[in-house]
Amino acid sequence: MGAYGAVGAGGGMDNAAMLQLQLQQLQQMQQLQGTPSMAGMDAFGMGAGVGLGGMSGGMPVQTPEMAQLLASNLGGGLGGAGYGANGQPQSMAEVYQAAYAAAFYAQQQQLQNLMRMQQQVPGLMHQNLTAQQLQQFSGLDGGMAGGDNGGYGSRMSGRDDRSRVGRTMGRNRAGDRGDRNGGGSQSLSGSVARSDSPPSEAEIAEMDSRFVSVDNCVGQISVLARDQHGCRFLQRKFDEEGAKAVDLCYDEIIAEAVELMMDPFGNYLVQKLIECCSDEQRSGVLRAVSVVKDDSLDGLPELVTIALNTHGTRAVQKLIEMLNSPEEVSLATNALRPGVVTLIKDLNGNHVIQRCLQRLSSEDNQFIYDAAKVHCVEIATHRHGCCVLQRCIDHAIDEQRRPLVLEIASQALVLSQDPFGNYVVQYILDLGLSWANGEVMTQLLGNYAELSMQKFSSNVVEKCLKLADASLEKNRNTVVREIMQSPLLDRLLMDPYGNYVVQSTLTVTKGVLHTELVERIRPHLPLIKNSPFGKRILRLLLENKK
Q1: pLDDT tens for each residue of 219-249
Q2: Per the domain annotation, does 146 fall within a domain?
Q3: Secondary structure of 15-79 in the HEC alphabet?
């Protein structure tokens, strides 16, 4: 374990004692390597004398012996694990020696950082610091402690900020980390606090002393909006100073609304602005992001581009939540309409469409239903699209639901065989609409045996058999007869998927049809006795006989 891990995990052990333990481990490593000893150092790496072996002014450095050992055994990091710099095979002793050398040098570097901390912040090691505080000082949490400029936390943490307001439903757990424009945004206050945590009293005091009020920020609003602490400062001022602060910031935010809505921090300020501004100002935001750029390759409004962005999707969802007039709704829906299919199929954009279904009226959402009906197969066979299509059915009124369900049912043969489309077909079967279930069963006629032996479509066939009500008994009996009269019946009995369909037919049939089905299966009993899947059918036959 490195020096940081030991200090952070020490719990109740004194920090100085933990560092002394690390020093002893380093000395043991040196003895194994035959490198100059660091005896005489105290817990903070400061030697009793000056110019100790392996030290430069009380700081550990990479010795010439160590550099030569690393170069010869590790090949500069390019020679491979089993070959030296000259390309000749190494003995196991040399490999172990190289590994020890690398581990020792890594611990030297860690100890060097701790000693820099001691020099820059006297008495630091005598304090009872938590592991998180030590990480912030040592640079493990994204800071650059002990770097060329000697600053603490000069780079932002690499983690994406999160806001309760900005979270989207059903968000996928990967792909949510935003870029930091080349490694990090410069923080005005220089700390490494996460942006979703409440501002500390020290942060509030520092920002207030620097800017006092929004009046002093005019002219640099867009810069502050892109900074973690500047963004939180402005949001706080929107709450404290109200409409006055919003009016002062509005023009500068609108001028860069598209870029700010897609910024890791700026999107939160735009969300706050949308909450606090007037209806007229909100309409201005909509107009600013509904334009189509002259150099746009796809010809889509900027609002669609924003909705496809990891950070922008949060701001667009907030915008939809706050729509408060027919004019605003019209602006939003007209901007989203050209890209509705693209949005439905996108990891981020699909949440915007789902928010429209939740917040807008059925009439305002008609553009979604029109696209869903025309592009039914394309949407239903997509990972995200199949979920959105199910939500469309949930939120639709009868005039919208019936044509959409009918279109899905008419494409049941294609959709049933798709990894995602089969869930959409099963969903409309679960609705219990006799006319829809009957249409699905009709579309699958002539293909039941083949569909029963496929992973996805076999589930659809089973549901057709189990969910058919009394009005569909004739349709169900037709399906059973097609299966039992199929030349593929012997394969179905032993198929990993088909055997479940045959079990369902035995379960749902009765009387003459059930007897006929059993007689069709009986000639295949000797064959299925040795099949792991056929044995299930045999067991079911025996149970029914009892």
Answers
A1: 999 999 999 989 999 999 999 999 999 999 9
A2: no
A3: HHHHHHHHHHHHHHHHHHHCCCCCCCECCCCCECCCCCCCEECCEECCCHHHHHHHHHHHHHHCC
How would you classify the pairing of strands 55-56 and 59-60? antiparallel
Q: Which structural domain, as residue segments, surrounds residue 229?
A: 186-277
* Residue 307 belongs to some domain of the structure: no
Contact 544, 506 (CB under 8 A): yes
Please tell me whether residue 298 adopts helix, strand or coil conformation.
coil
User: Distance between CA 153 and CA 265 in Å, rounded?
Assistant: 18
pTM value?
A: 0.65
123 and 192 housed in the same domain: no
Q: What six digits make up the tokens of 291?
A: 């334009």
Indicate if 192 and 123 belong to the same structural domain.
Answer: no
Task: Based on the fold, state whether residues 119 and 202 are members of the same structural domain.
Answer: no
Total domains in the chain come to: 3
Question: Which tokens is 143 given?
Answer: 């800071």
More confidently predicted of 201 and 137: 201
Residue with tokens 């089905």: 517
Q: Which of 138, 170, 196 is the last residue of a domain?
A: 138
C-alpha triplet 244, 247, 251: angle, nearest 5°? 160
